[in-house]
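Instructor's aside before we start: the two examples that follow are unrelated to each other. I chose them only because their records fit on one page, so don't look for a connection. First example below.
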Amino acid sequence: MNPRTSLVRTVTPHAAAEPAPPMRAPRARPEGGGYDTLPSDPKGLLRLLLRAWWMPVLGVLLAGGAAYAWVSRQPMRYMSSATIQLLDSRLSVGARIDGGGSSAPEQSVRTQVAILRSRPLAGAVVDSQPLGLRVLPQGMPWGMVHEVAVAGNPADGGVLTLAFDGGSWFVTDDSVRYPYDKPITVRGLTLRLDRPPVGVTRGRLLILPRDMAIDRLLSQLVVNEREMTTLIDVRFTADEPQVALQALGALVQAYQRADAATAQLQARRRREFVQQQLETVNAQLSGAERQQGAFRGAQQGFSSDERMATRRAEVSLVEQKQQELRTERQVVSDLRARFESPDPAVRARALLALPGTPVGSAPGVAALFTELSQREVARAEMTSVPRGLPARHPDVQRADQLVEGAKRRLVGAVQAYEEGLLLRLAALDRQRLELSRDLQGSPVVKAQEVLLAQSADALREQAAGLRAEFQRAQVAEAAAVGQVDIVEPPSRVLPLRPPVGRLVVFALGLGALCGVMAAVLREALDRTVKGRHSVERGLRLPLLGTIPRITGTKAATSRWQRRGTPKVSEVGRRRSVALATARDLRSGESEAFRQLRTQLLYGLGGRGKSLLVTSTRPAEGKTSVSVNLAISFAQQRLRVLLIDCDFVAGRLHVLLGANATPGLQQVLSELSSPFGAVQGTLVSGLWLISAGAGGADLIDPAGSQRFRTLLRELTAVYDVVILDSAPLLAVADSVAMSVAADGVLVVTRAGETRIDEADEALRQLDAVNANVLGAVINDVDNRLPRYGEGNYAYRGYYAAVSAGEAGD
């Protein structure tokens, strides 16, 4: 038999056949972690971009078009530039009298850059050049506005709407008319309009607040220092060429004036400092000259010998006085020691000896001694006859206290007198030391005179130098011009055209990047089945096979038509897809189903004979997989029974050319016997039980014991029983039927079946302990090659065999 011809023959359902190898136990579902839909290898990313190529292209087109449109709408801007050189202060006109000079240090250059960008300097420019910086004409020619000045500082600015006619102009909300070519002040704004504009009847003057105008100026100002030089480049950009030129000119001039004023202030301070130092030195010189004159006058009264003799006589006199005071101090010290003796008799003798000593003649001591004597006499009168008061009498005790107090004061007076002697001795010692030094310094009198003369000469020389420095400071103050030199003043304006090319290229790159990011985001959000990774990691199921796209015929014969079936062309296409395995044994589709059959027979293990084929939702190809898988089993010389368990949209009888009734519903309703509902098909070894018609609302076929009994009876007769059930999430029957079947095969559609929906369907099967054998991917739309999977090598092999190109 030609292998390309259909294997179609008619046999009875009870014909003898070889026993089928038993189905093995299903492989355990692998444990899986989280499922990442994004590829992790460069090839996967490249395939992702090839799949979504239109997204980067769309991003490039949109971004490039938007960038070009935006650049085209941008107004022309103008830039003026100037170059400033900084000089050291020693290079100023006044300071060149000293000669020499050096470049300004780098820190000074940075300081000057900061000054150029300071708000006070920008405020001075805004105040001096308000037109274009603070006052902005809109809808009228800039060249007709002159001599603009703004009085005050309105916080919120303002807008003046002007109207023009041939002879005058006026503010729209005011009736006063103003002539042309004459300065006019209107609401704090002074301006002069030189002529009526041509073709313009209205215009506006936008007055910005001063702070806003300063911010606007600083945002348009660029100040850069040149490395390793003292040059500073200043650039200013504006919407009008005359504004760019005038504003930058005003800025550099204001900066130069400010720097000159600062230099002049420093020169004045330097002159004042030198003047103060000169006055101080002159005063010191006058004092030195007076000292020198006094010294010379003192030397004219005595000669050196006479002066030395006088000093020696004075030293002898001082030494004599010192000796006398030391003797007197010795007497007083001895007397004070007796006063402090614990023996009363010694103290009494000391008191009796006191009047005969030099200390007794002292006025204070003599008075205290007299007072003590009187106290003692009074006390003695109290204790003697006739009164004879006892020692414990209060008056006697009071008298004793007075006597003791007088004694203590007397002793203190003696001690004070002794201390006075010590002070006089110390004064005489100092006087003698000074006289001795004077005698020793007599040989150096001449040297002192020389030192006074040298000091005076040094002060005269210092005063002369300060007078010369003062003259130079006066010259520098008069000629101070600062350290700023305008090397290149602003003299020309350059138009700045928007960089269309660079902006568009940047926008194209940004658009491509956004498109790539959108493609990656779309891929990350796409939770559909894309291949083995999706099934094994996303659904935690083994992948049993991948079915390539099946190409059906475009026409069908009239014998396949049934009443109520779809039109002929659609029925023919579906039948061609369903019978692809029987149509060509050496096609890629047939080989894919044979591989799936091999997986089910030998790779899974177990002894089951019934297989339920289901899917998540409709249009995922479960019916085509059921029919072709059944045909593949039949080609193995097995007795295969295909049961249509889709009571809602069952169409196996249409695809296999059988009758709609009797079917499964009639068998479960006991309106027909099981084998009475079995129909032969065009495929040898394959029988069919259709879904039947009517009565579906009267029974619960999926959960009935009758269904389980029927399935056991059929598996006892047929080698393989395949149940084509309804989608799991569409009808609840499939979940109930899965319990009765020996195994469940889940069909997914590449790029259509969502992982979360398929996972929910598997959760329902797990809830009833269904034996899920694995999943199969139905690549109806040929999407797997785009995901890097579905490499159907057997297609090329069979094509080469057909062309006679394959070798051994």
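Example two begins here.
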Amino acid sequence: MNLKKLFTIIHIALITLLIVLSVLTLLLFQNKTHVKNHNEAKLKSYAIASKLRKSSNNLTQYSRTYVLTSDSIWKKKYWEVLGVLNGKKPWSNGRIISWKDSVSKFNFLKEEVNKLELAFQKINNLSYTEKKAINAFDGLFDDGTGNFTVKKSPNLFLARTIIFDEKYQEDKTKILELIEDFFVMYQKRIELEIRKHETISYILLGVINILIVIIIVISTISFFKIKNKIILQFEELKIAKEKAEEKERENRKLSVAVNQSASVIVITDTEGNIEYSNPKFTEVTGYSAKEVLGKNLRILKTNYHSKKFYAKMWQVIKSGNTWKGVFRNKSKKGKVFWEQATITPIKDANNNIINFLSIKEDITESKKTMLTLKESERNLIEAQKIAKIGSFNLNLKTMRAKTSTNFDTITEFNLGEKTFAVWREITHPDDAQNNQKVLEKCIEKGEKFDLEYRIITKKTKKIKWIHGLGEVIYKDGEPANFVGTIQDITERKQIEQELLKAKKEAEEGNRLKTEFLNNMSHEIRTPMNGIIGFSEMLTEENITEAKRKYFINIIQNSGKQLLQIIDDILEISKLGTKQVKVIETKVCLNDILLELFSVFDIKAKENNTPLYLKKSLSNEKSTVFIDKTKLIKILSNLIENALKFTNKGFIEIGYYLENEILKIYVKDTGAGIDLKNQKRIFDRFSQGDPKLSKKVGGLGLGLSIAKENTELLGGEISVQSKKGVGSTFKISIPYKPAKEYKNIKVKETTSEIKIKPSKYTILVAEDEEVNYLFIEIVLTDKIKLPCTILHAKNGQEAVDFCINNTDINLVLMDVKMPVLNGYEATRQIKEFLPELPIIAQTAYSTPDEIEKAFLAGCDDFISKPINKKTIVEIIDKYLLKLDKK
């Protein structure tokens, strides 16, 4: 800067400072005037507030003195003060102005005015009380409009009471408090403003003094500055030369550093064309500096990065910012390498970008290592996922844990986000205490953690079994970390539980089978002992006829009992094969129940147990499509059980229709079944109370037969029972009403048949001689049927008899015979004699056997051993029908 220019600047600066000094001085005097004005306003405001307080006190004093002394001078003074306040009489200075108008002339704030106006308003309100007291003393009272025109006798007591009571004193106190509040509020504001103006004055005075000092300093410095300017210019030239030499040395150092740098350094223009590259660039890429000079850095691209990647990079650096990232490039020979790059814009003096500096480091080896680590990590995560294992690392000081991805998947909660305390939150309550004890023991004693426990997952609230493994890591002898794994072993635990359950069921099954075999041995031996024992007694010659009949009755009952046992065993075996078919026919449910009632009522009477039957539908509506044999088998087992276990009370059988479901029940007041046994009684070989079952007998198959037959009918069986009260067994099956119905009447049978003297021809197809002799004796000797009996020893002979004897009236066909079985023989006979009644007879009275017999063409079915009553019913049903025709 030359001397002339310096002198001009100093001159302008001094003039400016003098002008500012003058303005500040003027402001200082003006501020002093403001302080004086505020002090005067303060005194005036105090005066007007004091007048209001004095006036209020005078009004109170004058009105009270008057009602106490009755001196009218006090009354006159009271009205004068009130008139002055309201602007009706002059103040002491001779001016007539209301107090309210005088307040408006002051520059009070709204809050301050409100205080005074409220005090004035309360004074006026209180003046009414004072007027009321004065007028009451004078005998004048309010006429209801606020005017005291009503004349009465003076009431001194009222006047004094009004003006001296607590209410008056409270109102008076409030007035004084409001005036006092005004004083406090106004005083604070005025003092604050005065302090503000005084502060401004002090500041202005300080600034003025500072400006004076600055003017003196500038004048002094200007003198010496001009004096030494020439000397300084020579010194500056010397310093500039030294700096230039230092800059040159720095540039040489920088050039050596760039050339010898272990990093690749490239300088390009704003389009990416190379202007400079150091030797490391040649070493990494294979391109010499001369080869790449002027070429674009695109020569290194491998097309690995997307256009979006490069566009974002250019956007960053062209906006003047530094970009950092990784490039996958290729060398001159095509070898791929990775570079960690930092690209920085180079700007000129005007802040314009003129070049880009790129510093890059070859990270190929570290990239390979990182990729290998990532691959290993992925493999580890996948392995953990397959094995359902998660890992964790718990810092025992911060109690924060780092967890693997699969750990979070198993627990459904990322423990890395919270302290390890949340692990306790999701631990199953039944396992939490033990889990904590084991963990504390591991930390305290350095033992390994190995525990199976349960957790409740954070989101889905599933219960999972966990196998936890872990150990404490020590640093400087202190526990630092607790690291380990958790494995989801829920499936294994479920399998273990299922295996335990299967083991228990197998053991229970073996026990039941053993018990069943013992029961079966007992149940079979009991009737066999009766049959064998009493059969031997029958051979004795000296027994009476009565005993003989008694023994025969026992043998017959034992035989029936044994037959029932065999039927149950065969039935359960058939059901076990899952090959039993359902044959639905049109059946009247009322008739079936009546038949069962007739059969079991005899036994019920023997036990002195009433048997009741309840029907809820008419014969027409109760005619349904159902497998009659299976239904009878179900109900027979249920009624038989009821008779076994009911010693007192009653048994009731019945049914009702509910939502197109037919519900048939057998209710008893017997021993009842414990709730815990009510499901297992339907399992094979199971009994509700084995001790009680031993007393009444049975194999434990009846209810399982009833259950499986009910399921074949598309229904279900249930029980409601209470120990010592009784049981109700109920089967629920679909209601399938018949479209056409003909009333089925049960025909009563008699032990003797009234027949016409006509002769019958009956063919008995039976390969067992004893069975044939029994039938022959029954027909000829017992029921004395006039008939010719033909005997065929196999199915083929039966067919031949029917071909050669067209006068055969009835065929009793054994289904199991040599040469040709009864089923095939029946089919062949029905082809040429379709109207000939053929009755199937077999020892296997299972539903399948009955179905096969009817499918072969048999008209009816009887089970062995055949009794006299059954033969009478068959003869009555088929031969008498023939006579009617």
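The longest strand covers residues 463-475.
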